[in-house]
Amino acid sequence: MASAPSSKSLAEASKALYQNGEWSDLTITSGSRTWKVHRAILCTRCDFFKVICAGGFQEAQSQTIKLDDDPEDGIDMMLEYLYTLQIPALNTFDHMKMAYTLGDKYDLPKLRDAGLEALCRHLQDRCASWDKQSALQKSATASYIEEVWTWTYQDTNKFKKAILDGLCASSTRVVEDPLFQEMVSRNSDLALEFIKALTKRQAELEAMVKPTINAPKRKLERTLLEKMSDRIAAKRKAEEDLAVRAQRAAELERILRRRT
């Protein structure tokens, strides 16, 4: 009697079916890319495709689904996952982000969670190794941090925590870095959150060791943090003053217009 096929061989067979597109009965497009896929696989593994294909939508009649809002590489990753049920290699920030965002958008929990875990680990490791990076690598890390601070995903706080934990591990070395100082000067919320996280971490460490140990280093860190906090406060005050002046100028202009 022939042995039952292993899960690995089934995954390989499914991947081959996805790659060659044989016996496909559905087309997915995005930008310049086209994928020949199979309803039986997609509709049984993703409710989005099930609803689209089973309902009275135009896509069900045309047998074509346009996903122009999603990145082509991300769609490729998601479709391969749906065929093989294996998490793809997540080797870059963009791949991790696509796994998380598309997994969340199309309700694929395992893909989303894999992206979440990989992103948190990647962000924390990048930030913790800040002082060991070249100027180009630091610039890339800074761009990741600033992008995350604009996200509104349900797990954004987890990503931010990973960043803050990594930055705190570098401590003074990060605070003294001109590129880091330039980054936080553009994002006062990031700067304040970092100060809070580092202050909390220092308090926890001080509670565990004798006060005399590393006292000069802690004093230097506090001084640097105080200076950074003062700069942020001064910047916010200047922004508030400008806003008040602009409001007063607008009010004066309205008064002058009424008089004329």
Low-confidence stretches: none
Describe the biggest sheet? 3 strands, mixed
Give me the CATH superfamily of the largest domain: Potassium Channel Kv1.1, Chain A
- Nearest-integer average pLDDT: 84
Query: What is the ordering of alpha helices and beta strands?
Result: HEEHHHEHHHHHHHHH
- % residues in beta strands: 5-15%
CATH topology of the largest domain: Potassium Channel Kv1.1, Chain A
Strand line-up in the sheet with most strands: 2-1-3
CATH class descriptor of the largest domain: Alpha Beta
How many DSSP E strands? 3
Shape: flat
As for the number of domains, it is: 2
Helix content: over 70%
Estimated structural class: mainly alpha
Domain BTB: 24-91
Organism: Knufia fluminis
Protein name: BTB domain-containing protein
InterPro entries: BTB/POZ_dom, SKP1/BTB/POZ_sf
